[in-house]
Amino acid sequence: MTQSSALAAPPLTVFVEGVGLLGPGLSHWAQGRDVLEGSQSYQPARCVVPLPMALPAAERRRAGTVVKVTLAVGQEAVRASGLSASDLPSVFTSSSGDAINCHQISIALASNDRLISPTRFHNSVHNAASGYWSISSGAMASSSVLCAFDGSFAAGLLEAMAQAVLEQSAVLLLAYDTDYPEPLHRVRPVPDTFGVGLVLAPRRSQRSLAQWQLAPAAFLSNAPAQLLEDEALELLRSSIPAARCLPLLRSVATQSQGVVLLDYLAGLQLAVQVAPCR
């Protein structure tokens, strides 16, 4: 695309129809919204991941932390949107997938008995969470699964917004990460589990929480990513890749207008223009 055609292209515009949130000290979006707008203090605590009761019993037993967190935030976001989960295309994005399962496979490969259980192998693929979501929700729509290391949330957001606008259909975005146990934790020090679910639609509705735009001529910025004033929340944002979404969620919680800069590629941030809908 030439510079002149980029300048002429309309911005990607979506509306936030539902939010799901789960992470350290954050049990759901309603609580997270209060924390991010400042009406409730943030109390760091280990992430408590609920059982995936939407799955059949056999699949529930096989589900790892990644599956549990994606189902929790996905279901919360879809319920808030009032849409049908079975009809929504989805975008899954994670910096590393199921880190705990990767750890267990590494232990097996380092042992004298190097056989890997079929369940471990099944859950090791990067699109495992997408498959479990399809089983739990009956979704038959398209599903994209991305990985862009620490920029995975921004990459997933860009993909989901593009899909929503081009297909003129609501899209479910799920971003998530889990912690690595030692010794992998030494080289990938993600401290805990975090997940966020967002239903993004191309048209405004009575449920819309915010409007987000990416202008083709200015959606990348060299300016630093936006930080959080609360030290504990900033530590959460900076230490778990999926939590890079927190400044954007704060703009929804506070009904802010302006530009939010999100960590993306090395030296480049994603510039999201935000506006309230209420």
Write a brief structural summary:
The protein is of the alpha+beta class.
Structural commentary:
Strands 1, 2, 3, 4, 5, 6, 7, 8 and 9 form a 9-stranded mixed β-sheet that branches. The chain is built from 10 helices and 9 strands. 46% of the residues are buried. A hairpin with a 5-residue loop joins strand 8 and strand 9. It has 278 residues and is α+β, with helices and mostly antiparallel strands. Mean pLDDT is 89; it is low at 1-7. It has one domain: Peroxisomal Thiolase, Chain A, domain 1. It starts with a helix and ends with a strand.
Helix/strand/pairing category: alpha+beta
- What is the strand content? 15-25%
Overall pLDDT confidence: 89
**CATH level-two architecture:** 3-Layer(aba) Sandwich
- CATH hierarchy class name: Alpha Beta
Shape category: globular
Radius of gyration using CA atoms only: 18 Å
Number of domains: 1
Fraction in helix: 25-40%
At the fourth CATH level, what is the homologous superfamily? Answer: Thiolase/Chalcone synthase
Roughly how many Å apart are the termini? 36 Å
Please outline the major beta sheet. Answer: 9 strands, mixed
* Element string (H = helix, E = strand): HEHHHEHHHEHEEEEHHEE
The total count of helices amounts to 10
Could you outline the blueprint of secondary structure elements for this entry?
Layout: H1 3-8, E1 12-22, H2 29-37, H3 57-62, H4 65-81, E2 90-93, H5 99-110, H6 118-124, H7 128-137, E3 143-146, H8 152-167, E4 171-177, E5 194-201, E6 210-214, E7 220-221, H9 231-239, H10 246-253, E8 258-263, E9 269-276
Parallel strand pairs: 2-3, 2-4
Antiparallel strand pairs: 1-5, 1-6, 4-5, 6-9, 7-9, 8-9
Helix pairs in contact: 2-10, 4-7, 5-6
